[in-house]
Recover the amino acids of this structure.
């Protein structure tokens, strides 16, 4: 697998370094035989032929070569820029057709913050959905009226083009991609080692037109009902009634719009809430279990371990101390 990070003047090194480390560490968690047979190649691609790339921080990065000499990539990450992006866009206009070529060749594209402007310049987002950093929303809307800008979403997807609003949301997107590339268990390890506060990314974290984050009124009511109290009965019968639907209609509409069964969705919401309670409040494991609908703390712990590959107590200690531990 070949993953490229494009780098240009004013680009932020954090848009490269954290994601590259997460992907590299994820690949190294695979069995050794798979690492040998399916090697991961990560490359930093500059916009000129200089061997070193200057960064806003003053640090220098070693370039792996000019972007025009790069092979066809599987994933291409476009980092955000500091300040006004338009002077850089105008200076390196040859990057735009290359991005189109990579996309047509099968590369998934991920851009963050003002880096989304590069993808907007390609026309690949026309009539599609995008997001960008909150500070740049108005200017983006003025320059690219043909793109459906979602100012509420922190991550969007349109035909394998992913836009993220910030470094934090890029990190969440990378966890999602790691799950798709390397599996849920590896993604869980990476998430808890690199970013305890990232919400669970086992399911899609992004907004897409016509996709799972557009709900009709009945499903929206049901989701709101789930979020208000996770300690009670959230059976299909109760949820269907909360939305005024028959059980059969509820099951069909929920799966169509949310993209997963009610049971799987409720389980995910309960586990996410359990993580938040363990992280943010001084509660016993038994108290947390009760608040998310489990009367038996031992059963709750088993479910938590199955979901996150770590015990509730270990997760709480890890996040409270804010420390990283090696496997």
């Amino acid at each position: 697998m070949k993953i490229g990070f494009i780098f240009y003047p004013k680009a932020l090194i954090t848009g490269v370094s954290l994601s590259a480390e997460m992907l590299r560490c994820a690949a190294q968690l695979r069995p050794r035989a798979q690492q040998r047979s399916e090697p991961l190649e990560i490359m930093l691609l500059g916009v000129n032929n200089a061997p070193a790339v200057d960064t806003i921080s003053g640090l220098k990065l070693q370039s792996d070569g000019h972007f025009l000499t790069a092979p066809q990539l599987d994933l291409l990450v476009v980092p955000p820029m500091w300040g006004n992006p338009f002077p850089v866009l105008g200076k390196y206009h040859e990057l735009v057709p290359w991005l189109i070529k990579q996309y047509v060749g099968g590369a998934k594209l991920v851009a963050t913050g003002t880096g989304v402007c590069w993808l907007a310049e390609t026309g690949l987002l026309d009539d599609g959905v995008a997001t960008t950093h909150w500070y740049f929303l108005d200017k983006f809307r003025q320059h690219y009226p043909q793109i459906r800008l979602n100012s509420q979403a922190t991550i969007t997807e349109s035909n394998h083009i992913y836009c993220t609003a910030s470094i934090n949301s890029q990190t969440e997107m990378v966890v999602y991609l790691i799950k798709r590339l390397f599996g849920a268990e590896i993604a869980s390890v990476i998430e808890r080692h690199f970013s305890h506060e990232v919400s669970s990314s086992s399911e899609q974290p992004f907004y897409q037109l016509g996709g799972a984050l557009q709900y009709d009124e009945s499903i929206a009511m049901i989701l709101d009902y789930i979020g208000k109290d996770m300690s009670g009965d959230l059976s299909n019968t109760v949820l269907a009634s909360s939305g005024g639907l028959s059980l059969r209609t509820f099951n069909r509409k929920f799966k169509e719009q949310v993209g997963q069964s009610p049971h799987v969705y409720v389980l995910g919401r309960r586990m996410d809430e359990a993580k938040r309670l363990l992280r943010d409040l001084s509660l016993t494991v038994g108290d947390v279990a009760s608040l998310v609908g489990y009367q038996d703390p031992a059963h709750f712990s088993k479910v938590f371990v199955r979901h996150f590959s770590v015990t509730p107590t270990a997760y709480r200690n890890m996040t409270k101390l804010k420390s990283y531990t090696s496997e």
In short: The CA atoms of residues 109 and 161 lie 5 Å apart. Confidence is low (pLDDT under 50) at residues 197-202, 207-214, 322-327. The radius of gyration is 21 Å. Residues 262-280 form the longest helix (19 residues).
